[in-house]
Amino acid sequence: MNKEKDIVILGIESSCDDTSASVIKNGYLLSNIIAGQKVHELYGGVVPELASRAHQQNIIPVVDQAIKQAGVKNEDITAIAFTRGPGLLGSLLVGTSFTKGFSLATGAPMIEINHLQAHVLAHFIQEYDQPYDPPKFPFICLLVSGGNSQIILVKDYLDMEVIGQTIDDAAGEAFDKCAKVMGLPYPGGPFVDKLAKEGNPDAFQFSKPRIANFDYSFSGLKTSFLYFLRDRLKENENFIEERKADLCASLQKTIIDILLDKLVKAAKETGIKEISVAGGVSANSGLRNALIETAAKRHWKMHIPKFAFTTDNAAMIAMTGHYKYLKGEFIGMDAVPFARMDIRV
Question: Which of 145, 229, 299, 323 could form a disulfide with 280 if both were Cys (CB 3.0 to 4.6 A apart)?
Fold first, then answer.
């Protein structure tokens, strides 16, 4: 009898400032290596040119380590999945170019991956000797990160529809920019989350937008927060330092309230009770706790990913590549990255 050939997917992620490589074999995760970039902390945000240069330095050792840790060889790779977009164009170019070179050298076909779609499919990453309870179709995913805030109706692995999204800034951007105004380091989200645990979430009230349907807006909140601080600092120049924990707790509660209000509305109108969250902001402990409480109250089946799979990582790229490989969805050497991509592309 002929033994079925193993499906070994090498995933490459380089959409922003994390260089990551992962290997998934027959649907199970073997390795997931991530190299971050500390240089951006000096500038209070990601500098695209510096990010692409760092990717060039990191990508070969990161891929080498991922393959070695997985215990496979280059010739064992069945296909290479890479992030085509959305993201920083220079960073995406590094990953795309590396993938083309690896494909030419090994003969393994290339699979383009939509970064946002991959965040959703992070819920389907399987690990040996770990519990596995992925969402059942159809389900709703709240995708929240530094660049995106979306509510996605997920009908199948590769069939998704955005039913709500931000019309301006993303939730993660609101966290980071408000944190910067308070003098917190970059990225500000985790620092706000940490300080919020020590503060009173009802100490201050900030603007909440009234947007139609399931869409979001966070620009008004940022403006409200900025003006509030400006007025209070005129009265007391030490206001931020004296009330930093309360400011963080109140800011975080406002952002979470905005996110959950539309998620509850979407779940109610679709009648779907399988709910998930994905993206970097899903690591926020306040949001996680609020989702768990809301799920218990509304009888949702709540799916929250492991912390390792919330931020940008190649495991979610390789996992999405696995499903696209099964459908024979490959791309040629003429592939170019896109800074913007619709989730259905």
Answer: 145
In a domain, 332, yes or no: no
How far from 170 is each of 77, 219, 332, CA to CA, in Å?
36, 8, 33
Q: What is the pLDDT of residues 13-59, one digit of tens each?
A: 999 888 999 999 999 999 999 997 676 676 666 777 788 898 899 99
| Pair (70, 210) in one structural domain | no
The span from the CA of 341 to the CA of 345, in Å, is 7
Report cis status (omega within 30 of 0) of the bond before 187. Answer: yes
| Residue 296: inside a domain | yes
The reply to whether 119 and 146 lie within a common domain is: no
Question: What was the pLDDT predicted at 2?
Answer: 42
Q: Which structural domain, as residue segments, surrounds residue 23?
A: 8-130+310-326
Which residues does residue 140 pair with via DSSP β-bridges, in sequence order? 153, 275
* Strand partners for 295: none
Q: Would you state the structure tokens that stand for residue 26, as one six-digit string?
A: 């027959």
Contact call for residues 216 and 164 (beta carbons, < 8 A): yes
- Per the structure, the count of domains in the chain is 2
Q: Model confidence at 300, in pLDDT bands (50, 70, 90)?
A: very high
Cα dihedral value 174, 118, 91, 327, nearest 10 = -160
What would the pLDDT profile of 221-271 be if each residue is shown by its tens digit?
999 999 999 999 999 999 999 999 999 999 999 999 999 999 999 999 999
The string over 27-48, giving b where at least 16 C-beta atoms fall within 10 Å of a residue's C-beta and e elsewhere, is: eebbbbbbbebeebeeebbbbb
Residue 342: pLDDT band with limits 50, 70, 90: confident
Domain of 18: which CATH number?
Answer: 3.30.420.40
Q: Residue 13's closest CA among 76, 99, 72? A: 99
How do residues 189-208 score in pLDDT, each as one tens digit? 999 999 999 999 999 999 89
Contact 287, 259 (CB under 8 A): yes
Q: Which residues of 177-209 are buried (b: 16+ CB within 10 A; e: fewer)?
A: bbbeebebebbbbbbbbebbeebebeebebbeb
Q: Sheet of 274-278: strands edge to edge? A: 159-165, 149-156, 139-144, 274-278, 301-303
SS3 23: strand
